[in-house]
Design goal:
- Strands 4-3-2-1-9-8-7-6-5 form a nine-stranded antiparallel beta sheet.
- It contains 13 helices and 17 strands.
- 32% of the residues lie in helices and 24% in strands.
- It is of the alpha/beta class and 509 residues long.
Length: 509
């Protein structure tokens, strides 16, 4: 669902730009027709505003960064930052498209379907222009040039987010997956980004296939963090190619997340792996797969069935329990972290278990009754705080929940046990577990993971990293609501483990 459908006026038109992840399914295309500027060597930082004819929001503050090319014949890059506020979710390091510079006039467009067009002319330290929204409405744009330190005060602090110029090449890729998923029963296009190192590294490159969370876009964006973009950047600087992709129903990939099973996701990943192996710039004897969260489950499944054998497997914050058990243990960890009493936690989890058991059995009447009981218990436990649901709201919630639990996605996830795949793996494996992971908590995943991996490979590396959340970020609580407040996208310890492991097993200097 597009959020812009629910935001009135020109603010809704702008939402398509300001709500999109920085590089969600988009790789900068070759920029033609641009006039090279006369070889500046420093970035230009421009802060200002877009004026809006709205009563609730009169202007949108923004920062535009102009980045000079690496060579006199190259083209400029432009980044857009929007500081988040009560009425705007913000944007961080969004790379603009179709950059043109003619004397002191700069033009570029947003990298999304809306293609919002920016145009302004510099006059000393000031600039004026327009933003054309949706090809129809022109809004005034006012800017002034400032030092970098002042500009960064209006940007989200994301020091690891890659910013151009990049010392590597990015290529947009589309792969047709062999997995046919009802009701379409046809090949599904998957949008991806292939990253290739620049000299001094030479072909054929070792490569890493990055497999993300269920239903996530290729950068795994959350809270203005882009962990897979950070990983791809670090790998390229170390001489490794990488391929990351949008899961079904996200970014530029087709399909429907709710209709996608674990088996279909594994087939999708296999299609991307085949593309890597067929590329003459990639060394097929030095390919790794890396999975984050549910992507780690898919990575283990893929490693189990892939021939010839892969070079290595990297599992980040994966689960080692069935899907249903993982939901219960996730809820237990979060309720404990919130300070709930043992008695309340036990009663809450008993009701959640009844819901999952009914869903797993495919018993819709029992499922509806279990969800209704969960709602009743939750309303009573709140002791009047916030009020309860009206009958129509309760019925709508039950219907939506039943639809979710009965989807192919959930019917595949709930009974799935990753242990057989983990036990079968004999190739070099690195697993990183986060001490504050409230999605796959170490209390119920660390020891089963160690035991399962040791069955096929006693030399498998498993590391528990203290103070990190599910996404391997240094954190205070591990809850999702603090992610936007965090500065680091991936803890340097995790990056060091990943790069050291990959270099060692790829025999790469």
């Amino acid at each position: 669902m597009r959020l812009s459908h629910h935001i009135p006026g020109c603010l809704g038109l702008l939402a398509a730009l300001f709500l999109c992840p920085p590089a969600s399914g988009w790789t900068p295309p070759p920029q033609s027709g641009a006039t090279p500027a006369p070889s500046p060597t420093v970035n230009e930082y421009w802060v200002g505003r877009i004026d809006l004819p709205e009563r609730t929001l009169s202007e949108i503050p923004l920062v535009i960064t102009l980045i000079p090319p690496l060579s006199p014949t190259g083209t400029w890059s432009v980044l857009l930052d929007i500081p988040p506020g009560p009425a705007l979710p913000g944007a961080s390091a969004t790379l603009m498209a179709d950059v043109r510079m003619i004397d002191d006039t700069i033009e570029f467009v947003s990298p999304d379907e809306a293609r919002n067009a920016f145009r302004f002319t510099r006059a000393g330290s000031e600039a004026r222009g327009t933003v054309t929204v949706g090809g129809v409405q022109q809004l005034p744009l006012t800017l002034r040039r400032v030092p970098e330190a002042e500009a960064r005060q209006s940007m989200l602090d994301r020091p690891q987010t890659p910013r151009p110029p990049f010392p590597y090449t990015q290529e947009p890729v589309t792969v047709s997956s062999g997995a046919r998923v009802a009701p379409a029963e046809e090949l599904t296009p998957l949008g991806a980004t292939l990253v290739l190192p620049n000299p001094p590294f030479t072909t054929p490159y070792p490569a890493v296939l990055l497999i993300g969370e269920d239903g996530a876009e290729r950068n795994q964006s959350a809270g203005f963090h882009q962990p897979f973009a950070v990983l791809a950047d670090a790998l390229a600087r170390a001489g490794f190619a990488s391929l990351r992709y949008d899961d079904r129903g996200s970014g530029l990939s087709g399909g429907d997340t709710a209709e996608t099973t674990i088996e279909a996701r594994t087939t999708d990943a296999a299609s991307l792996l085949s593309l890597l192996r067929a590329d003459p710039r990639i060394d097929p004897s030095r390919i790794f797969i890396l999975g984050l969260g549910e992507g780690a489950v898919i990575a283990a499944q893929l490693a189990r069935i892939t021939t010839p054998q892969l070079t290595g497997l990297i599992l980040l914050s994966g689960r080692a329990t069935t899907g249903a058990t993982s939901i219960i243990e996730r809820d237990r960890a979060r309720l404990n972290a919130e300070g709930e009493s043992p008695a309340y936690i036990q009663q809450r989890l008993e009701r959640r278990t009844a819901v999952l058991n009914a869903a797993n059995a495919g018993d819709e009447p029992a499922l509806r009754a279990a969800i209704a009981e969960e709602i009743r218990f939750d309303t009573e436990a709140r002791r009047g705080e916030g009020g309860g649901l009206q009958d129509w709201q309760r019925d709508a919630f039950i219907n939506q929940s039943v639809q979710m639990y009965q989807s192919p996605r959930f019917r595949s996830f709930l009974p799935h046990d990753p242990i057989p795949a983990l036990k079968s793996i004999t190739l070099p494996t690195l697993a990183l577990v986060a001490s504050r992971d409230l999605t796959n908590p170490p209390a119920t995943n660390l020891e089963p993971l160690k035991s399962a991996l040791a069955a096929g490979n006693p030399a498998a590396e498993v590391h528990l990293l203290g103070g990190l959340n599910h996404r391997l970020q240094p954190c205070l609580t591990g809850f999702d609501d603090e992610v936007t407040d965090l500065t680091i996208t991936i803890d340097p310890r995790a990056l060091t483990h990943i790069l050291t492991f990959a270099r060692r097993h790829a025999a790469h200097p």
